[in-house]
Amino acid sequence: MAKKEKTNLVWLGPGTLGTGKDRLNPGDPLPADFSEKDMKRFARKIGEPREKTSIAEKQNLQALVKKLEAQVRVLEGKLEDQKTENDLLIEQIEKLKTGGAE
Fold this sequence. Notes:
Elements: E1 6-10, E2 29-31, H1 36-42, H2 51-97
Antiparallel strand pairs: 1-2
């Protein structure tokens, strides 16, 4: 089996490139027959998520946002209840200060 020629270019990542015995890890030299078409097919821009994970991540984030929004609504309701209770207590304190005869 002939050894594949390598270029002086290396795969920088992110992650591995390709599958099986032709897989390239970050730092591996690119094969001599590696074309721009191959680069477009395999490479992703740094920070660009894979489509499958981005859909799942998006769904997870949407579910998390809905849960957090519900928690915020509950906490806002509790805050309003606490404000009302505090206002009533302040009124009672004022009545006691003035002698309670209003």
